[in-house]
Amino acid sequence: MLSSSFSLLSDQSLLAILLGGDVAQQLAGVPLSEIFEVQPTSESAVCEARYLAQPVVHAAKELFGRALRERLQCGSALTSPQIVKDYLASRIGNLPHEVFVVLLLDTQNRLIHYEELFRGTLHQTSVYPREVVKCALAYNAASAIFAHNHPSGVTEPSGADEHLTDSLKQALGLVGVKVLDHVIVAGDATMSFAERSLL
To answer: Residue 31 — pLDDT band, cuts 50, 70, 90?
Structure first.
């Protein structure tokens, strides 16, 4: 498969495909995290190259996010935890404020509905279990995946995050809706409660 062959290419080769050889050459040795985050640097040549790369990088990231959203349209089966995490990162990873979202699934783990239920500030969002239960019942969901973002860039769950997850799990359990995961998103990084055995 063509996509798997790309995993064998070096960072420099991939940058050359994406940005062109001249820009990729100017960016040689610059960490990918800096290129994609467009962080400032003191080297003028690298600054210039990064400025040229910025629209292309953002366009590529946006297209990747759109491809994930197409793949996870309503009716799509969620067959891979990584697809779900990438999808959530593309939707809420770079927001400047916290949001709490829910993915509602049917008995075959197909996506029924994506909803941003609550929006907060830079540091917190108030989440009300009653509203989450109402949303799940409205769409006749069999299971749910929660997600929220940390604009601070740290994916570690707080004690409040763990308490909220327990409260939501209990509330939804009363109406027969299973909680499959709670994902914390910070930029492109994610943390899964299920993978950490926190559910």
So the answer is: confident
